[in-house]
Specification:
mainly alpha; 73% helix; elongated
Length: 202
């Protein structure tokens, strides 16, 4: 679920050109940094869930661990084995991004300006779909129903942020079009809100 939520936020920031313009107009540098952080976080989580499970006291909860350490029905075991193989193949394309860029500052990578973690867009989408299938298979065998929706949306999510940013643009446009009296009123209201949330003027 976490991987899908990260992808969903990243997608919403840059899904539509007009929406991207909104983020750029309000706080271009900030949202660029947010986007870069989301890319790194998404790659990191992709690698973590798709790597080998480890051994002994260093076991990790991965797709491979789920596929190999439980007594699934024969049909589901076959499905999990197939999905595990596809997910492991994708891992080979991205694991160096974690080891040489995200988790470590590999000297040769920096000097030679190497790029790791690139993959065709459709393969990333398929990876997420494979993870969803793994969740649904395991959840249904354990609890009788599929896991279901992998993205949680509601008040306070990225859509709320987009709505708030749209309102801020609306305020700016109204302020520009207002007469002197209305501008004073809008300015006072803006100052009241800034004081309420202790927004710095710096």
């Amino acid at each position: 679920m976490e991987i899908n939520n990260i992808y969903h936020i990243q997608e919403q920031i840059y899904k539509y050109a007009t929406q991207t313009e909104l983020f750029q107009e309000v706080a271009n540098n900030f949202f660029y940094d947010v986007y870069r952080s989301l890319v790194n976080l998404l790659l990191l989580e992709m690698v973590k869930i798709s790597e080998k499970p480890g051994k002994g006291g260093n076991e990790n909860l991965t797709v491979s661990y789920l596929a190999k350490n439980f007594d699934w029905s024969e049909e589901n075991q076959d499905r999990l084995n197939k999905l595990e193989a596809e997910i492991a193949a994708f891992n080979k394309k991205i694991f160096k991004a974690r080891h040489k860029v995200i988790a470590h500052n590999d000297v040769s990578t920096i000097i030679e300006e190497k790029v790791y973690g690139e993959f065709p867009f459709h393969e990333g989408v398929q990876f997420l779909e494979n993870l969803k299938q793994v969740c649904d298979i395991c959840h249904k065998e354990c609890f009788g129903i599929i896991f279901g929706m992998m993205i949680v949306t509601g008040p306070g999510d990225i859509h709320s942020c987009i709505d708030a940013l749209s309102k801020s643009i609306t305020f700016d446009e109204l302020f520009e079009e207002a007469n002197t009296e209305d501008k004073i009123s809008l300015f006072d209201k803006s100052r009241e809100v800034r004081r309420r949330y202790r927004v710095s003027d710096e």
